[in-house]
Amino acid sequence: MILPVIGYGDPVLRTVCEEISAAYPDLKQLIANMFETMYNASGVGLAAPQIGLPIRLFIVDLEPFSDDEDLSEAERSNLGDFKKVFINAKMLKEEGEEWAFNEGCLSIPDVREDVYRHERITIEYYDENFVKKTQDFSGMAARVIQHEYDHIEGVLFTDHVSTLKKQMIKKRLLNIMEGKIRADYKMKFFAKKGR
User: Fold this and answer.
1) What tens digit of pLDDT does each residue of 4-30 get?
2) pLDDT value of residue 193
3) What does the record's cofactor remark say about binding (predicted)?
4) Of 75, 98, 148, 153, which is the active-site residue?
């Protein structure tokens, strides 16, 4: 089932999310719905707060990057079948040189900015079968995971841009909050109270 994506301004996007157990109600169905929602919106990652749930769960599928000419052949080949579920993730290490990439977010449509992120990460998480894993990721995989991990910590990619850039996108962010934008997918807008 395709769920509405929560738009910028909703407090759930600023929530440090709670861990869940393997007994979380309808977890398999929730994960399936999240993938369906993400694919419908042409995304490569989606975190539970983006569908209104303040829980430590996010998904990624990096297949769209497998034909990105800007990436090395080796990295492209690794991304073709990179589809993962991260539950109760904990970032253990972020290291290496920080590099810029023009990021966007399904909760912040039509806003893209260069964001600097670490080249390599080590993350501990449970997969969809609640098997605990500790893995290292680098390059584009590390970047997308860092972006989605930020969501479960209540951080948005716009928090990583300069004060000047924030001023430049302020009006667009306000328009998203007030539902004055159109996305190619179902969204739920915060819409300021009293208007």
Assistant:
1) 999 999 999 999 999 999 999 999 999
2) 46
3) Binds 1 Fe(2+) ion.
4) 148
**For residue 18, what are the domain limits?**
5-188
Structural contact between residues 102 and 2, judged by C-beta atoms closer than 8 angstroms: no
109 CB neighbour count, 10 Å cutoff: 21
Half-sphere exposure of 178 (CA within 13 A, CB side): 9
Contact 56, 20 (CB under 8 A): yes
The answer to whether residues 138 and 119 touch, using CB atoms and an 8 Å cutoff, is yes
CA–chain centroid gap for 148, Å, is 3
The pLDDT of residue 194 = 40
Q: H helices within 55-184, ranges in order?
A: 73-79, 139-152, 163-177
Q: Look up the CATH number of the domain holding residue 143.
A: 3.90.45.10
Residue 160 counted as an annotated binding residue: no
Contact 99, 119 (CB under 8 A): yes
- The number of folded domains in the chain is 1
In a domain, 39, yes or no: yes
Domain for residue 194, yes or no?
no
pLDDT digits (tens, 9 = 90+) for 100-143: 999 999 999 999 999 999 999 999 999 999 999 999 999 899 99
Residue range 50-73: mean pLDDT, rounded: 85
147 part of a folded domain: yes
pTM across the whole model: 0.92
Annotated binding-site residue? 17: no
Active site residue 148: yes
Residue 45 lies in a domain: yes
Establish whether 118 is an annotated binding residue: no
